[in-house]
Amino acid sequence: MESIAVALQPHKDTVGQTAALVTVIQFFSGVLVVNEIRRRGSTDGFSAVPFLACTVFCLLNVQFGQMLQDDGMIRVNFIGLALHLLYVCAFYLYTPGPKKTAVWGQIGLAGAFTVGVLSYVQYEDPKVVEFRFGVILTAILWTLVGMPLLGLVQNLMALALGAVQLSLFIIFPSSVAKPPPSPAKKHN
């Protein structure tokens, strides 16, 4: 791994700028979802969680960038934070009246999680906080990347269970229940 770092050292600025540009472009992917919500006129069938999770992730990365004194990281994640706050506002705007309470609840949970992590970072031992905060951010990122896969895994499990159920119907077909024989009638 060290040899890769050494080989890329002369291109450090180019790699950093390319990564920043690609990340900012990726942040604009929410525009497609918000546009679809606008076209439908409602958030039915959509979730605010991806927007909220990315908002939290960007806010925490701004803090991490300040800790590392990395201006590029701060700038990129501030852009992401601003965009995702706009996406959350647009999502709320198109949420039907009765469902707005649920969105507020999700916003509250996201805020509480953010406050919890930021509080931890403020009170942790300065010697280990940078590493541990990086681990927390990595875990959040893996969770964000894994969310779509969770739906796929659930669908594959449902498919497998459905296939087992169908095979049981084939192996053990139901038979028409015959009525029990009636007792012989006595003739007097």
UniProtKB/TrEMBL annotation:
Transmembrane residue ranges: 45-64, 76-95, 101-121, 133-150, 156-177
Protein topology in the membrane: Multi-pass membrane protein
Entry's localization field: Endomembrane system
Cited Gene3D superfamilies: 1.20.1280.290
Entry keywords, A to Z: Membrane, Repeat, Sugar transport, Transmembrane, Transmembrane helix, Transport
GO MF assignments: sugar transmembrane transporter activity
Annotated InterPro entries: SWEET, SWEET_rpt
A single GO cellular-component term on record: endomembrane system
PANTHER family per the UniProt record, alphabetical: RAG1-ACTIVATING PROTEIN 1, SUGAR TRANSPORTER SWEET
Family listed: Belongs to the SWEET sugar transporter family.
Protein's name according to its UniProt entry: Sugar transporter SWEET1
Taxonomic source organism: Anopheles sinensis
